[in-house]
Amino acid sequence: MAGHKIAHATLKGPNVVKELVIGLALGLAAGGLWKMHHWDEQRKTRAFYDLLEKGEIGVVVAEE
């Protein structure tokens, strides 16, 4: 029985190029989502100030 060999998975070191590509892809995806969120917030703010400037809305509660 001492002569039987058991198949083991051989452990390899990290694949640097693969890790760089994965990191770059994840970074670009997260950056793209952040920029889309930022552009949406800018659009909302710009629309608010446009309505405020036109006088369609006000920030002071009207007294009755």
TrEMBL record:
Keywords: Membrane, Mitochondrion, Mitochondrion inner membrane, Transmembrane, Transmembrane helix. It comes from the Eukaryota. The chain crosses the membrane at residues 20-36. It is found in: Mitochondrion inner membrane. InterPro entries: COX5C (IPR008432). PANTHER family: CYTOCHROME C OXIDASE SUBUNIT 5C-2-RELATED (PTHR34372). Belongs to the cytochrome c oxidase subunit 5C family. This protein is one of the nuclear-coded polypeptide chains of cytochrome c oxidase, the terminal oxidase in mitochondrial electron transport. This is Cytochrome c oxidase subunit 5C. It comes from Camelina sativa. The gene is LOC104762244.
